[in-house]
Amino acid sequence: MTAPRPLIDYGRMLDVIGIEGELMLSTAASALPSAAQAVVPGCPDRTLEETLRHVGEVHRMTRLWVRDGRQPAQWQRAPADGDLVGFVRTGLRELVSELSAHDPGQPCDTWWPEDRTHGFWRRRMAHETTVHRVDVQAAAGGPVHPVDSEVALDGIDELLFLWFGYRLGELGISLPQRGVVALSAADQRWIAVFEPGRSVASRAEEAQVRAADAVVSGEPMEVYLWSWGRLPDQSIRISGDHEAVARLWTLLRPATQ
With a threshold of 0.90, does the pTM exceed it? Predict the structure, then answer.
């Protein structure tokens, strides 16, 4: 089985990594050091400083994984000189350079069996960087720049297939109840089905959406960030069984940690 093709092209994913990374760096340069311990509103167990360190670590880990064709045993986890902004900037530049050197359709080791290509890493890093850019801007207390609608739609798609549909199974997490929740944003529709021992997502037609227990809908950015736990229920619209949506929410949280 292979993953469905992403909703944006791979070249654009590289642009997203670079643009979102620069937005994050600009905010960090203005916010540090005074806001270093500011809590990320959508991720209250992490501070702005910890988020930046995490991004720098993940970018380095990914670059080495792509370069060497296997998960690295070690990588730099903190700036040696204490320069956190420089740590993130260097990691971002090296990551984009490494990803750019490979055809996204070519085989590459990844942690998702359904997509063993270089394109997996472009997409994963586009959304990793976007979500944490939002985290950094929210923690800094300034304006949070919007997420492009097409990028947000692809992010919802990635989250449902990769994190909900695959990661939960790897963690052995499921619920005793069965539920079917549709998600709708712009012209895209999805169905998320959960039941004992299984969670699975699919792109959907309107008839499938109408048959779901509940529907989560809204603007692409709002549904995207809600799915990642960065926005509350008040940011989106819920119709149908609110308990089914609450159960989906409880499953998405461990999936995306």
Answer: yes
